[in-house]
Amino acid sequence: MTLRVPKAELPAELRENMMKQLGVVPEPVEVLWNNPELAAANQEFTARVSTWDAVDASLKTFAHMAVAAQVGCSWCLDINYFLALNQNLDLSKASQVPRWRQAEVFTPLERDVLEYAEAMTNTPPTVTDALSKSLLDRLGPAALVELTVFIGFANMAARCNTAHGITSQGYSDSCAVPLAARPADSDVASTV
Q1: For the whole model, what pTM was predicted?
Q2: Which residues of 95-105 are buried (b: 16+ CB within 10 A; e: fewer)?
Q3: Which fold is adopted by the domain 57-174?
Q4: CA 105 to CA 89: how far, in whole Å?
Q5: Res 190 pLDDT > 50
Q6: 82 near 171, Cβ under 8 Å?
Q7: What is the mean pLDDT of the chain?
Q8: Where are the domains of the chain?
Q9: Phi/psi of residue 190, nearest 5 degrees
Q10: Angle at 191 between CA 157 and CA 34, to 5 degrees
Q11: What is the pLDDT of residue 185?
Q12: pLDDT given for residue 186 in this prediction
């Protein structure tokens, strides 16, 4: 896949900050900068999302990776796996998110969060009352609302990146544990 929208020239200060933080400028930022007002609003919202703390960071990272694996956003998988490394999350678990149903490393709560992320990502969504109640009982209302909005955000990011032709930039290459591939015959309902 190749970029479907050209990269825009970033302001020098923003480019330098991105280079300091990540070593390279993220392609989604360069593509969105074609509309600077939108790009700034997206960066602001992304920064706000990263401050939410009602849900454990690993659950949110795994949920984002599950969305990315289902949508096919290699960029989101790549950056979230890299962020998992930098947040000292369990890389043996993070590496298995694309094949979480077959992996035996996840707790029952983590499995439910991954199932919830995929159910929200399905078209149409397939979230059940039972799954929602189970998460509500274990996480509480504030955390479930946060998790739901976070998964919605992950869907927006993954779908925009995929539509723009943005793919992995190799962030996860620094991770010691290789990222597992999603099974070809996944039992997840397809997205349209």
Answers
A1: 0.91
A2: bbbbebeebee
A3: AhpD-like (1.20.1290)
A4: 13
A5: no
A6: yes
A7: 93
A8: 57-174
A9: -75, 155
A10: 30
A11: 60
A12: 57
